[in-house]
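can u do me a favor
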């Protein structure tokens, strides 16, 4: 009995010991730096809940979760007369995004009147000088304080809590005066889904002892990290593409308040210190001179405040301001923008190079202190800044102003759903647009290939956007075909490229919205206003017809692919028209979706399903009762109407895969197709039953490769009838894999370069409207003088293999970091349904593909333009035919060396493999959700591939 009791006692003590150890793990030891003084010091109102009382820890001591932040701001809004709380959006994971309007009690009571005054000042064209002076004297300046748009850059959101509490609870006289003079809008957490992922990872990777090692998981996080939102979009690049609900809600709110100052709190490398504006060159020329001037005033004041504390900092250096899609997009609407980049610090703290430990609270303090310094600068210079803002806005609509004589034209298109997406974005940004009911002759026209004409005629029903508007800088920044980069910046960029391969460019150098969207557009050197009408959106209709035999949705419209995918998901039989047709005097494009009664009469309520999905996708449906195609156009029962197979889509994901590429494709499937699909962990592919899928997508990679076993599994699956789609950097492994496909990388093709050039020439000849290089056709005697593509090789002196290798090594160093290039598309291939002959492609140092097959190169870089004086010549490895030039650059920085290397290489290849097919796309086809031209090709590949490119259905 004594032994039993002793055993029980020992067991109990062990259990208590284990519980104690578990408790230690759950409650880490206090971290060094915890003794850092409280951020909130002063006399505060006792009726306002303190952050510490609500959170259970001092503000900045730990990372507050999204749920805690949302609950706390709601609590404060219920307690304070200095604040209004507004929910401006909900994330994909249904989390609230709020902003708080903070000002004096009197200002909050009159906030609608104040906002009305701000709107008046933003449109000052009709205001008298006296009225402007009156409004300037009596209207508080507005500051927008925004934090943690990257979810794992956490200190900004925690500093926002300190800022909000200080502003609404402080009894300090200086704070009272600040609130009298300013309306301060705090957006405490711009990316709640990413922050939720990050804070969860903090919990999962915590140990019992503090960890200061910046390489540890506690500091780095794990794939896909907390930076991005649910679909892994970088929301800080989404401020004018506005793809995501977080961005759309925020943009709408900012545009309603017209802030004079916008703060954006970020984090950077853990061993750095603190960066703030102003930026260095390149600076976008559409940012007003006064904004650049005021940025230096704010920087001087902030630097003085940091000097007072003895804190290290720097300005500019890597921070440039060319791309307009960051949060600094507010500068194009008149705001002064200041970026904060605090060195990242996890809750445990970071050990610096000098051995000191920087605490998380100190990082939060830097952001909090910066905000107060900037707000004081705005207060001190309120009227002068407001006055410059009004002057700038007036100049934008001045008949003699910088933007007076420029308009943008989006040419009429049958892709109504994509055009409507573009116009929805114009509406969101407050940009006015019009329609020309009749053809309109205009002068000084430049097209997207850079061709200039003294006059051209705009087709009727085009979209016209005059640049003479209050938001003129924003319009110019996103719609001009090229951003102007100063010569001295280009010189520095060239020097860095040659010296060590580095760059002064932080992001893409091209972003033109019409090119990204794949919409044909012109720049016109005159103000267009007369004879224009407001645009009325085309309403989608279901146009039934008596004795209908089929229902058609035109293939030019992206909605047709969405409709086809969802119908196939519902087991409705769908066909696609592979060449243009005319039925009942209605023209239909290649790629038109056809749902016939003959195919579906045995399906229950298929017509009801069609009507419902047509409504959901915004598809315009035309019924026909005439199956005979006009002239030699296809009849409704011809082989040109091919039956589709239901796509069963899987996509590889997890470690090594780029979260961006993966997320952007995932978003496209969910939002555009809306069909079921699977995400497969790449390391488990060897154990997966791939027979469940007939489409497999391999997104681009950040690092690593697929294992040989995985490659073998995919190889066998493709041969059995699968459609493999590979994008971005993942293309390299498949192009290099032995015997996987015939397409190669440019650098691996030099031994057979003549064969690749011959295929290029054959493709060009096959596309000509007239028979080229063929004389005396029909003669009875055998011709003794035949032209062959290789006969001029001796005169053109092509490079040999060794020379090509040296040429390749030299030119690849100049590859672009984001330029929009012109490509030519095979208009007989099913992958180019709904895609124009000229397709803008955003590219960087992407793989360049080579193929000996004429039909495999679906999209090639470069567009032939006629030039009667041009002789046949070699550029790099490829021949430019006589009488032609090759146009390549559409927008952005492209060095001549890179242009020569890229010219005529394939951007997209498709080839058969057994019963299946392999489609290689050399970049991210749905980049930032905005490259809608190349995204259409991906949609075609996913939805039409199993029926059009593969010859056998995989057994399921």
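np, heres the sequence
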């Amino acid at each position: 009995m004594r032994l039993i009791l002793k055993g029980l006692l020992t067991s109990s003590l062990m259990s208590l010991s284990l519980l104690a150890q578990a408790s230690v793990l759950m409650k880490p030891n206090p971290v060094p730096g915890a003794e850092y003084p409280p951020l909130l010091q002063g006399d505060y109102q006792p009726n306002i809940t303190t952050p510490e009382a609500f959170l259970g820890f001092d503000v900045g001591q730990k990372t507050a979760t999204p749920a805690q932040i949302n609950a706390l701001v709601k609590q404060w809004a219920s307690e304070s007369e200095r604040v209004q709380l507004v929910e401006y959006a909900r994330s994909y994971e249904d989390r609230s995004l709020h902003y708080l309007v903070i000002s004096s009690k009197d200002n909050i009571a009159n906030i609608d009147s104040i906002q009305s005054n701000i709107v008046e000042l933003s449109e000052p064209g009709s205001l008298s000088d006296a009225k402007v002076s009156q409004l300037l004297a009596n209207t508080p300046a507005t500051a927008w304080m925004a934090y943690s748009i990257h979810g794992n850059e956490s200190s900004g959101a925690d500093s926002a809590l300190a800022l909000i509490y200080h502003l609404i609870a402080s009894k300090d006289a200086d704070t009272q005066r600040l609130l009298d003079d300013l309306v301060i809008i705090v957006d405490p957490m711009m990316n709640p889904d990413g922050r939720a992922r990050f804070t969860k990872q903090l919990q999962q990777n915590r140990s019992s002892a503090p960890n200061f090692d910046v390489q540890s998981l506690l500091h780095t996080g794990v794939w896909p990290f907390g930076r991005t939102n649910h679909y892994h979009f970088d929301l800080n690049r989404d401020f004018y593409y506005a793809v995501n609900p977080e961005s759309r809600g925020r943009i709408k709110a900012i545009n309603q308040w017209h802030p004079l100052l916008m703060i954006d709190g970020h984090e950077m490398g853990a061993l750095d210190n603190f960066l703030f504006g102003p930026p260095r060159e390149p600076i976008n020329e559409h940012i007003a001179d006064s904004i650049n001037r005021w940025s230096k005033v704010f920087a001087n004041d902030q630097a003085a405040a940091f000097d007072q504390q003895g804190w290290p900092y720097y300005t500019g250096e890597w921070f440039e301001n060319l791309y307009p899609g960051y949060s600094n997009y507010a500068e194009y609407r008149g705001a002064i923008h200041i970026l904060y980049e605090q060195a990242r610090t996890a809750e445990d703290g970071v050990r610096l190079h000098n051995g000191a430990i920087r605490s998380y609270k100190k990082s939060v303090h830097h952001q909090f202190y910066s905000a107060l310094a900037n707000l004081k600068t705005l207060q001190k210079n309120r009227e002068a800044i407001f006055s410059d803002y009004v002057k700038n806005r007036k100049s934008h609509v001045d008949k003699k102003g910088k933007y007076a004589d420029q308009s943008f034209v989006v040419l009429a298109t049958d892709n109504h759903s994509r055009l409507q997406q573009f116009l929805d974005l114009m509406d969101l940004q407050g940009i006015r647009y019009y329609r020309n009911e009749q053809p309109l002759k205009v002068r000084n026209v430049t097209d997207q290939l850079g061709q200039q004409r003294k006059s051209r005629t705009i087709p009727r029903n085009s979209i016209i956007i005059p640049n003479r508007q209050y938001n003129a800088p924003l319009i110019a920044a996103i719609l001009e075909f090229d951003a102007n980069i100063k010569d001295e910046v280009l010189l520095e960029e060239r020097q860095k490229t040659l010296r060590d391969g580095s760059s002064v460019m932080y992001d893409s150098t091209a972003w033109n919205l019409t090119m990204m969207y794949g919409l044909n557009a012109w720049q016109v050197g005159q103000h267009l206003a007369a004879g224009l009408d407001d645009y009325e959106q085309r309403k989608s209709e279901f146009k039934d017809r008596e004795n209908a035999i089929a229902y058609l949705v035109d293939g030019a419209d992206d909605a047709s692919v969405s409709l086809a995918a969802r119908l196939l998901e519902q087991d409705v039989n769908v066909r696609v028209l592979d060449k243009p047709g005319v039925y009942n005097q209605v023209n239909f494009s290649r790629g038109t979706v056809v749902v016939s009664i003959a195919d579906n009469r045995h399906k229950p309520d298929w017509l009801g399903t069609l009507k419902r999905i047509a409504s959901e996708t915004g598809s315009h449906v035309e019924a026909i009762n005439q199956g005979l195609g006009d002239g030699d156009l296809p009849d409704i029962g011809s082989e040109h109407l091919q039956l589709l197979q239901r796509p069963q889509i899987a996509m590889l994901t997890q470690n090594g895969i780029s979260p961006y590429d993966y997320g952007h494709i995932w978003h496209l499937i969910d939002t555009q197709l809306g069909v079921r699909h699977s995400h497969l962990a790449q390391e488990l592919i060897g154990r997966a039953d791939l027979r469940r899928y007939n489409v497999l997508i391999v997104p681009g990679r950040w690092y690593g490769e697929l294992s040989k076993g995985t490659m073998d599994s995919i190889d066998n699956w493709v041969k059995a009838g699968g459609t493999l789609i590979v994008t971005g950097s993942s293309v390299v492994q498949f192009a290099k894999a032995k015997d996987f496909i015939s397409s190669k990388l440019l650098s691996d093709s030099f031994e057979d370069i003549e064969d690749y050039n011959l295929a290029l020439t054959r493709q060009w000849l096959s596309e000509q409207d007239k028979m080229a290089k063929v004389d005396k056709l029909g003669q009875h005697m055998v011709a003794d003088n035949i032209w062959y593509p290789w006969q001029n090789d001796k005169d053109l002196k092509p490079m040999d293999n060794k020379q090509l290798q040296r040429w390749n090594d030299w030119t690849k160093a100049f590859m672009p970091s984001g330029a929009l290039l012109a490509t030519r598309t095979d208009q007989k291939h099913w992958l180019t349904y709904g895609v124009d002959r000229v397709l803008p492609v955003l590219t960087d140092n992407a793989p360049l593909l080579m193929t000996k097959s004429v039909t495999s190169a679906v999209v090639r870089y470069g567009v032939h333009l006629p030039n009667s004086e041009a002789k046949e010549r070699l550029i790099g490895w490829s021949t430019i035919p006589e009488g032609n030039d090759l146009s390549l650059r559409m927008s952005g920085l492209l060095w001549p060396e890179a242009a020569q290397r890229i010219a005529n290489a394939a951007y997209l290849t498709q080839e058969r493999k057994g019963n299946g097919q392999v489609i290689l796309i050399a970049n991210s086809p749905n980049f930032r959700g905005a490259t809608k031209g190349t995204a259409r090709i991906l949609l075609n590949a996913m939805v039409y591939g199993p029926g059009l490119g593969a010859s056998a259905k995989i057994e399921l």
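The chain is about 35% helix and 20% strand. hope that helps!!
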